Amino acid sequence: MGSQLAKGPREGAECLPVILTAAQKASLQARTLIILFLGTVGARAASTLTFTVASLAVLEMLDNDKLAGLPTVAVTLGTAISSRLLSNYMAGRGRRPGLTLGFGIAAGGLALTAYGVNRGSLVLFAIGLLFFGVGQGSANLARYAAADLALPSNRGKAISFIVFASTIGAVGGPLLIAPAERLASSYDNGKIIGPYGVGALCMIAAALIIQAGLRPDPLEASGGLDAHSPERSARATMLESLSLIRANPLAKLALVGMIVSQLVMVMVMVMTPAHMKVNGHDQAAVGWVISVHTAGMFMFAPIAGWVSDRFGRAKTIMQGGAILGVATVVTALARQAPQTLLFPGLFLLGLGWSFGMVASSALLTESIHDDERVAVQGTADLTASVVSGTAALGAGFVFDVGSYQILSLIGTTAAGALLVMAFITLRRQPSAQESKPALAA
To answer: For residue 197, what are the domain limits?
Structure first.
C-alpha cells in the first residue's frame, strides 16, 4: 500500500505531509491500532449488555417467547444495511467520520430501545435495535481501518488485534450489568432499561474515542481516500462491487471465506442452547459452553493473524475450513448434548471462524485496488451479515424439522467446500502462496 496521501484538500481534512516516512507511518499505525482497540472494546461491551437482556425484554413486553429471535433479526438487519452505507461514506470522508457516525447512531438506537421497554412498545424496541445494528456494522468495519496503514507482512496481525478487542468487551460487558440495574432501579423494568442505558453510554464513549483519537485519518494517510468526492463513492453499487470480486479469484476466495465462516459458526452456535436445553442442561451449563465458544472466536485471533501473515492468507482460510469441519463433526456426534463434546466442538467452531474471518479480511483488502477497496469491503460485510441472519432463521427450521446433528453436518459440508476452494486457489494462483498483496496499491 502506498504512503502517498489523497490528492486535494477536502472540507474537514487534516493538513498532512504529502509523503509519510516509514517511521511516521509506523508511529501513526501504532496510534491508530490503540484508538481502534479502545473504541471496539466500548462497542462490544455495549453489544454484550444488550444481548444479555434482549430475550428478557421481549418476554416482559409480550409475556411469551414466541418472538425471542426478534432482537437478533433487528440487529442483524441494521448491521447488514449499515455495512454498505457506512463504507460508501468512509470512501469519501474517511474512517473517523464513518466510525463516529455509526457508533453515534447506535447510541441513539439503544436510548430508543430503553424508552421502548419503558413504554412497553415492541415497535420502538425493535426500531432501536435496528439502529443499534449500525454500531455493530461499525465495529466490524473497524478491522479494515486497522489494515489501512499496515505493512503487508503485518496486515493479518493488525486485523486480529481489533478482533481480539472483542474479548475485552465480551468479558467486561457482563460486569456492567449489576451497576446498570442499580442506576435504573427507580424504573419498573430497571433490570432491562439499565443495561440498554449503560450500553448507550458505552457507544457514546466509543464514538468520542474515535472522533478525538483517530487523527490523522488512516484511510487518508494511506492514500485510500476517494479523491473524487463522496458522490463518486455513492455510485459504486453493490452489483459493481460484486463484479469486481467475481473477476478476481483471490477476492472471490476471501468473500467465500467470510460467508462460510459466518454461516457455519452462526448456524451451529445459535441452536446449541436449544439443543442443550432439550437434553436437560441448565442455564449455567449453556453459559459456560457459549463462553468457551466466544473465547475461541476472539481470544485467539492474534494467533490467526500471525498464521495468516506467516503462511499466507489462502492457506489460513483452508486451515479455518478444516477447523470448522472438525468442529461440526464433533457437534454432530453430541447427540444427547454431552459437555465433553460440546466444549471442544464449540471452541473449535469459534476458532475456525477466527481463522477464516481474519485471513479473509486481509486477503480481501489486498486483492482489490485502493479506488474500490472500501466499497468492496462494505459489500463483503453486507453479504456476510445477510447470510448470518438467514442462517440464524434457517437453523431454527432445520432444528425443528430435523435435528442438531443434521444442522452440524450441513456446516461440515460448507466447511469442506471452503477447504476445497482454498486448495484449488492455492494451486491456480501462485500469489496466494504469499502474504503479500495480490495488487500493488
So the answer is: 16-235
Q: What is the mean pLDDT of each run of 10 residues along the chain (441 residues)?
A: 39 49 90 96 89 75 69 85 89 94 96 91 93 92 94 93 89 81 80 89 97 93 67 62 92 96 92 87 81 90 96 95 98 91 96 97 91 89 86 83 92 97 87 49 37
Write out the H or E segment, with its range, that includes residue 67. Answer: none
Q: Are residues 159 and 284 in the same domain?
A: no
DSSP 8-class letter at 21: -
CATH number at residue 420: 1.20.1250.20
Please state the pTM of the whole predicted model: 0.84
Same domain, 163 and 73: yes
235, 265, 298 — which closes off a domain? 235
pLDDT digits (tens, 9 = 90+) for 120-158: 899 999 999 999 999 989 999 999 999 999 998 999 999
Domain annotation covers residue 438 = no
Three-state DSSP class for 15? coil
pLDDT in tens, 316-328: 999 999 999 999 9
Note whether residue 158 is domain-resident: yes
